[in-house]
Amino acid sequence: MEKLYYVQNLGFVGNAMIWWRPHSKGYTTNIEEAGRYTEEEMRGLINSRPEEDFAWGCEYIDNTPEIRKVIIETQRIDAKNMITGKR
């Protein structure tokens, strides 16, 4: 089985790492939406931007539960469901 990699961009959103989406089509903080790259694809990405992009083995990221956290996406949450107090 071929080893696959996630490619991280240097930036962060809070504590969340930023990952390349599939086919290098933008970024995401959601690892479930991140691209999974072959070694050749990964090397092409990180070698073209060595100061900005880094690779992590999918096996390590996917099998280390203490580094995987659930986040709530603020751009997609419906504020109509929010309850506020009186001022």
Q: What is the residue-mean pLDDT, rounded to a whole number?
A: 91
Described by strand count, sense and barrel closure, the largest sheet is: 4 strands, antiparallel
Terminal-residue CA separation? 59 Å
| Structural domain count | 1
Please provide the count of β strands: 4
Poorly predicted residue ranges: none
Rg calc: 16 Å
Quaternary organisation: single chain
Strand order, sheet with most strands = 3-2-1-4
| Total helical segments | 2
Coarse shape = elongated
The percentage helix is: 10-25%
Strand content: 15-25%
Order of helices and strands: EEEHEH
Q: What would you call the structural class?
A: alpha+beta
Molecular structure report:
With 87 residues, the protein is of the alpha+beta class. It has one domain (5-79). It contains two helices and four strands; from the N terminus they run E-E-E-H-E-H. The protein has a four-stranded antiparallel beta sheet.
